[in-house]
User: Which sequence fits this backbone?
């Protein structure tokens, strides 16, 4: 059985896990990594956040090591996207029930692929023994003063989402036995749950236009509430305007699921953001020109809280996003 | 029962957890923290590492929340000390079996105290539900090119340790029922196990003198081996020279425990480092002048591996530090 040091050497050293970035002076293998920040100086700010995935809580226990690795990094990259930041480095704290070498090999290979894809490097790790849990701290850079936050949405700003909403929640609902999926849609929908695409490029564009931004992890309403609460405003969104995928529409046989899946289901990792009215036309033109799918779904208002209208009537929203520890 | 958001708001927001550093532009409460690095530019490099504590593995299950919080941050600060870095910020990923408000209050209060003491600020957190596990990623700064690493020890360099060695391992052995402690020593020894003192100030001094450095977490031999392996050298240390505390000597009734406790016991979080021969005299003078307890315990050699002599005979070392996953 390999020791902790063997695991780190074999599966998480720079050569095996990710490409070397020029700004990593010293990577894994010492008490800490050493990082060159000289290029950033006045022009940039460092952006950092942490996200943990617990087996059985954030992903089904039988999820493949490839999907777990991908998702663990993707949800962190998504935080960088939501800040309008360009990701750079990450640390990985992984707690493993045992040192299953096949599992580790698959995990580290998959992590390596997504790390290369987004040009981020693993710079530090800690491998411990216990119930499966993966915690990643990610670092990125934004132009000074240009970071997207949650607290600057203004009344009359337009509310947008990227991509389509509800696919991940539908895949999860099917996995939980709440509904069944058509054979030909399973691949797409599971991909949407297990392999969310961090919207880094869109985030970088938004840093020029958006007044606020968040990634949809807890559910559209819950995450939009983070923006409205932090900005001391409210919002109304229109259910009919929320973009749904072809597969979502094909597989949704029970209309009663629309509200929980689209409004409260999380895990899409699309961006929800606000655009000031006077920038709307230009933003939509630029987004279209760059092939970003963005959809206006509502408006920021002064009246607190988040409302959702369907056929001009307010939808009753009972579940508001995934909250740990709530009974 | 509080939700995840309530927990973050109540126990881990800047006002409750730690003082505000001027370089934290935006702390907890968004998708990521925003950090000003403009002061550092060419003069400094960013140093970052991650350390996880798992309940039942890294600390006994009945450890108080105060001690867990202290130790979780202290072991990370210790990594900064081992790099010769000045710590700045940290992220906290905490997995909790339940939302016990008394536990959380005690934990966050204690975390706040040590954070203030070392002028570090909590800048990001993720609270999840599961078996107790705390993962901290810490950030610090070193003068460019001055970081202490493990790979630059040279033949003939002198090997030093700070403080005294074995206290934490003795406290752990007593807790495990392997030995008993004198009533009057319990407080001191448990403090050494639960409240290790990160050697930040010594680390900063060492960045001017030492050729390599590591903190003793896995055990003296195992950690010194990290230095010799990475530097492609070997080492001989002298058992009689290893500094032991008065309490250690008073409580050690079974001589057979000396080797496992002093050579292989971890958790002391003292520094082990190497000083080039030509800097030895000046270093000892400066260390003494600054009231640092440092002791020369051996020498770097060309012959690979780490040897320990006792009465001029080589000690058999069977256990070499705590390794997760080893049967």
Assistant:
């Amino acid at each position: 059985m390999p020791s902790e040091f063997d695991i780190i050497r074999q599966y998480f050293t720079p050569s095996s896990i990710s490409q070397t970035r020029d700004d990593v002076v010293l990577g894994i293998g010492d008490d800490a990594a050493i990082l060159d920040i000289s290029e950033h100086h006045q022009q940039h700010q460092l952006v950092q956040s942490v996200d943990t995935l617990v087996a059985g809580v954030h992903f089904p226990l039988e999820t493949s090591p490839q999907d777990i690795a991908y998702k663990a990094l993707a949800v962190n990259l998504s935080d960088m996207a939501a800040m309008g930041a360009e990701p750079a480095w990450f640390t990985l704290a992984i707690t493993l029930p045992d040192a299953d070498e096949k599992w580790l090999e698959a995990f580290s290979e998959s992590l390596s692929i997504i790390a290369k894809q987004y040009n981020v490097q693993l710079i530090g790790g800690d491998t411990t023994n216990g119930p499966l849990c993966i915690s990643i701290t990610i670092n990125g850079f934004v132009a000074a003063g240009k970071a997207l936050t949650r607290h600057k949405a203004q009344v009359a700003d337009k509310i947008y989402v990227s991509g389509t909403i509800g696919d991940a929640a539908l895949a999860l609902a099917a996995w939980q036995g709440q509904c069944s999926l058509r054979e030909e849609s399973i691949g797409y929908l599971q991909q949407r749950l297990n392999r969310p695409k961090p919207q880094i490029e869109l985030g970088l564009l938004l840093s020029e236009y958006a007044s606020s931004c968040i990634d949809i992890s807890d559910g559209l309403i819950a995450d939009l509430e983070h923006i409205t609460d932090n900005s001391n405003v409210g919002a109304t969104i229109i259910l009919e305007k929320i973009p749904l995928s072809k597969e979502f529409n094909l597989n949704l046989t029970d209309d009663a699921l629309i509200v929980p899946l689209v409004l409260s289901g999380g895990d899409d990792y699309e961006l929800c953001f606000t655009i000031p009215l006077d920038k709307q036309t230009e933003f939509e033109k630029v987004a279209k020109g760059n092939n970003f799918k963005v959809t206006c779904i509502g408006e920021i208002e002064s009246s607190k809280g988040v409302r959702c209208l369907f056929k001009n009537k307010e939808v009753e929203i009972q579940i508001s996003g995934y909250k740990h520890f709530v009974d």
Observations:
- Chain A has a mean pLDDT of 90.
- Chain A touches chain B through 77 residues (CB under 8 Å).
- The CA atoms of residues 151 and 231 of chain A lie 4 Å apart.
- The radius of gyration of chain A is 20 Å.
